[in-house]
Amino acid sequence: MRSWAARTILMLDSYSIKVHGIGGEMGRRIGLLSDIHGNLTALRAVLTDAAGRVDDYWVLGDVLLPGPGAGEILAELATVGATCVRGNWDDEALAVLRGEADMNDPTDVYFTCLVRFLYERIGDVGVTQMAAWPVTLTMTVESVTVALSHNLPTKLHGHDLLPQADQANFDRLFEGNSADVAVIGHTHQQMLRYGCGEQLVVNPGTVGAPYDRGKRGDLRARYAVMTIDGRSVSGVEFRTVDYDVAREVEYARAVGLPYVEFYRDALEAGVYHTHDQAGLTEINARLGYDAVARAFIETRRAGVEPRGATA
Fold first, then answer.
1. How far apart, in Å, are the Cα atoms of 253 and each of 160, 256, 292?
2. What is the CATH number of the domain that holds 194?
3. What pTM did the predictor assign?
4. Which of the four pLDDT bands, split at 50, 70 and 90, describes residue 4?
């Protein structure tokens, strides 16, 4: 497979949904969540904070991995009736489950071991649910049309939509549609910008995988509440939520998450090892992850279901 971090979506699933009715006197309040990345403790803290503030939940991809939350996260999102689109981690997990991985690439080995862990916990039922998430989605709330995507509609990876990126990149969110608003994720940074046609662009930040580009050391969970009053977006509130990092790391250890020390580094220090080729090569050999990944990929390519994957 092409490097899991550098694949481009060539065939897109796209859906359109119309939401009728206003949530209250202040308008319909949309909870925008993105980049949960398997962090169950952070998600539960965000949902607790959002309770009473939000009428609907829209999730902008990267729902699962590298954290330990699996079926529990899917259940939490189902409970609040969340609408989800697919992110690059979600899409790459599906690719690995099709047997698409390069076992000579330490990052692919890392990702394959995580996908094996995930599959053993969600089985085919959960995989079917993930595969049903569209890459792009259009939501209409009264007269306001909102385009949902993880990153660019035709590209789930890359740095095209960092807050300081060229204006032309953000205008691409409105190509081929008549959206008034685009909501995105992927960069893990809360952001509000505009397209050249005065369309609003909102990124709620990351629920479960924070890192602080400003070096302030603030690694709390983030999300946003967007209020639509029937004619326009009347407000966007960016929220930051404390959660129990130690509890999340303890949970990861208890359920046997691979690379748990790397996960701890991410949550406690904002340090990510996804592309640390030297570090991954060493730990893959030392802990036997190379062999685990190869065996799993062989079963996927052969169409054999691993034990424990029927949940």
1. 35, 5, 18
2. 3.60.21.10
3. 0.91
4. very low
